[in-house]
Design a protein that fits this description.
The structure is a single chain. With 228 residues, this protein is mainly beta. It has one domain. It is built from one helix and 15 strands. The strands form three sheets. Strands 3, 4, 6, 9, 12, 13 and 15 form a seven-stranded antiparallel β-sheet that branches.
Length: 228
């Protein structure tokens, strides 16, 4: 009988040059790691690389600034990627407490330079491996971002350059409790942001609604994307 195995690479992936030999990668439970999105997210979770941000008052709602149209210099949520890090946005979920109105719109997007933001409120950020701190952290315990802010207090970006739209949409009057949702686990396009760059969520609400929100992402090292 022939036994086929690979190297355990749950915490970090090795990027090899094109044309060279490589090894199969496995999680510590011996499951095979593939580039299927579900497999990648499972591996990132086991490696302590998945993070989540939400409004600092759990169960409370954040206020969306009243704007008739999207202003890219005024995001509802933003976080800058640290130099030497890469983040992969996993999901965004924004749940309004009241109805949308016709003309309300939203964008999940990114741009390539962090020009520093002012204002905003600090969200809570937690790793998706839940424990009480009595056990050592899994991975390097680095959430990969700087200056994370939500728009419960209005945010102003210093500048926005080379903007990328990852997903966007419009709302209609009567859309009660319809969420803004982005998820690579549900078929939405996958993107990667290498630091320094900025990921964000933009909301235009003519009435300035209250919302619950959650943003999830994976953190990688730039070396995991570039061959030595």
């Amino acid at each position: 009988m022939t036994t086929v195995g690979g190297f355990i690479q749950q915490i970090g992936r090795t990027i090899l040059k094109d044309g060279g030999p490589g090894q199969l990668a496995q999680n510590r439970d011996e499951s095979l790691i593939t580039n299927d999105i579900t497999s990648l997210v499972n591996t990132w979770l086991r490696g302590g690389k998945l993070w989540e941000a939400h409004f600092a008052t759990e169960g409370g709602t954040a206020t969306v600034e009243s704007n008739a149209a999207i202003d890219l210099t005024e995001p509802f949520f933003r976080m800058a990627v640290k130099s030497g890090k890469v983040i992969v946005p996993i999901s965004v979920y924004v749940a309004p407490a009241t109805v949308w109105e016709t003309g309300d719109e939203w964008i999940v997007g990114a741009y390539d330079t962090d020009a520093a933001a002012t204002g905003g409120a600090l969200p809570d950020i937690r790793n998706m491996v839940v424990n009480n701190g009595s056990q050592p952290a899994i991975g390097d315990n680095d959430n990969g971002v700087n200056n994370p802010l939500d728009g419960d207090s209005a945010i102003t970006e210093g500048a926005v350059t080379n903007f990328r739209v990852i997903k966007n949409g419009h709302e209609l009057t009567g859309g009660l409790h319809l969420p803004v949702e982005y998820s690579i686990l549900k078929g939405d396009a996958m993107g990667m942001l290498e630091g320094p760059s900025v990921f964000g969520v933009w909301l235009a609400s003519t009435s300035g609604i209250e919302v619950l929100y959650s943003v999830k992402w994976a953190v990688l090292d730039s070396a995991e994307l570039r061959a030595a």
